[in-house]
Amino acid sequence: MKAHEIKKGNVVDHNGTVYQVRDIERSSPQGRGGNVKFRFTLYSVPGGVKYDLSVGGDDELKEVELSRRMATFSYKDGDAFVFLDDEDYTPYTFDADVIGDDAGYIADGLAGSYVQIIDDQPVALQLPQHVTLEVVETPPELKGGSATKRPKPAKLNTGLEIMVPEYIVNGERVLVNTTTGEFGGRAD
After folding, report:
1. β-bridge mates for residue 25, sequence order
2. What's the pTM value of the predicted model, to 2 decimals?
3. What is the DSSP track for the chain?
4. Of the candidates 146, 137, 145, the residue with the CA atom closest to the CA atom of residue 170
5. Residues 6-24: pLDDT tens digits?
């Protein structure tokens, strides 16, 4: 697979280690005849050790065969997150270090996630693009403040903190983009 074909979430083999692509930076040279370079932020699977890799656009990377299973978050077992397969209810357990910063997006009954499996082992979790979370703590709206678009901090039911528009109040359910961590609108 050529470097320019790789997208976030792909799993590749580099020097005998399996990595998931978390971030991609593309740099185009300003001068003539320069080659496009790609800088990948990779995390080892399993383990989650970060690795930065810079390659040219036509360099080859070996894609790893993996299966993706739709799963729903079921419960937390200590620090571990347990997801159930939507078809056969197989439990997939992920340690908190594998989930990492994505833990702030996981609330009870979260559906639409994909568990990535290599050799019958769950190795990574892919969250849906948007998740619905509840605002549990945010300052009240300022009177007359609706004409301006000033964001304010809001703490969500998972402990995640994001910036929301002033009109959002405590108890409201909001959409949060899992890629950028930004407010995506009202949920209901």
Report:
1. 39
2. 0.68
3. -BGGG--TT-EEEETTEEEEEEEEEEE--SSTTPPPEEEEEEEETTT--EEEEEEETT-B-EEPP-EEEEEEEEEEETTEEEEEETTT--EEEE-HHHHGGGGGG--TT--SEEEEEETTEEEEEE--SEEEEEEEE-PPPPTTGGGS--EEEEEETTS-EEEEETT--TT-EEEEETTT--EEEE--
4. 137
5. 877 778 888 888 887 878 8
Distance separating alpha carbons of residues 62 and 39, to the nearest angstrom: 16
**Identity (one letter) of the amino acid at 109?**
G
pLDDT of the residue at 86: 93
CB within 8 Å of 118: residues ≥ 6 apart: 11, 18, 45, 64, 65, 66
Report the residue count for the chain.
188
Looking at residue 164, its pLDDT comes to: 92
Query: How confident is the model at residue 147, as a pLDDT?
Result: 55
The values of phi and psi at residue 117, to 5°, are -125, 130
Question: Which residues lie closer than 8 Å to 180 by C-beta, 6 or more apart?
Answer: none
With 60 as the cut, is the pLDDT of residue 145 above it? Answer: no
- In this prediction, residue 144 carries a pLDDT of 61
